[in-house]
């Protein structure tokens, strides 16, 4: 028998059986394997000695049996019995395939070092207890005293006060050759004292008699201005008072119309603009129909309504000047709406827009208020006011209404403005000649700070354009005194 025959040449089917426990103890014992033939083939059962492949499997083939002289219809079992295949009927359904289960040891997996380095130990964690290191620690601080070098305090220099003197040394005394017994102030270093007379020329004196002497001496004798002109220059100095911290607002108001409120506003604004070097504006805030712009030469048709609508485009003083008219004294006037229907729409918010823009470019803002004192524009005006001017006429009812205006201001929380107010008594109204003006002044002096009489002037009575230089000197002096009193009542610093 050829025992090296390849398994694929076998026509039968092989059934492998692993050795049992008895076979494990007897390594040399023959393991019997039954190979069931396919349908139509004879079954051949051989011993372990035949075709032993070394792993306990016996291969039997019909062709091999024929070559050995064994009938192909018989099967050899072991070495002693021969079973006829015809006597054994095998049903395919009755054939049970043997199943052998082998328990192999579980494979042991070796964990690589790189995997073991990042592995997490399977340790049960109690969520109610977390072991942690102490969060605080105590240290011992040993204070060490470091000596601080002594710092010498600077010596405070005490400057003694100037000794009192019965006679105040003036520049005129120094020009006359006198020598001061006390230290002089910096105001004594004037141009008249330090400059040589030949290198400068004094301005011509003002006044009738000083001019006569100055002309008769061929401009060699200058006795200075007359007392009247010196008094006017002192008024100019009062008007030229400087302010810090923004614009000052001065409303001109009264409860009665026709008493010269617009005229007083014009005179006050012209006197301020003529004497001061900064900018002055007068705003016509009359909600009905103001005539303030008609007292100067109109250079534009713009009104307060145009300022409100163009407020976003006004970025500088040049833009704002296109909306106002300017007279010869450099007084800027902002007109009210000429249409009564539009004037009614000018309210508190509109005035605040105009006042905010005017406060950016001007030092003093005058507001010509309407006859009503309960509208919203009046409320916004008084909230910004630093001082007020009350206009009164020369009649009984006009003076009484002006006094009632002060009463209304006190009742509405503006008592400070009343005590700092200035009353302009317009004596150009009808009936002034029949009224005791001294009694009206005495009444108002008990309630306000000052009172000024505005005299009659033909140019003012015309109700047209006012030329400041053509006014009577008495009218200009009254307007300048009014301006000086108003400026003296304004705070030098905001909040003072």
TrEMBL record:
Residues 253-386 form the CobQ/CobB/MinD/ParA nucleotide binding domain. Residues 1-28 are annotated as: Disordered. GO terms for molecular function: ATP binding; ATP hydrolysis activity. InterPro entries: CobQ/CobB/MinD/ParA_Nub-bd_dom, P-loop_NTPase, ParA/MinD_ATPase. SUPFAM superfamilies: P-loop containing nucleoside triphosphate hydrolases (SSF52540). It comes from the Bacteria. Signal peptide: none annotated. GO terms for biological process: negative regulation of cell division. Keywords: Cell projection, Cilium, Flagellum. GO terms for cellular component: cytoplasmic side of plasma membrane; cytosol. PANTHER family: ESX-1 SECRETION-ASSOCIATED PROTEIN ESPI (PTHR43384:SF14), SEPTUM SITE-DETERMINING PROTEIN MIND HOMOLOG, CHLOROPLASTIC-RELATED (PTHR43384). This is MinD-like ATPase involved in chromosome partitioning or flagellar assembly.
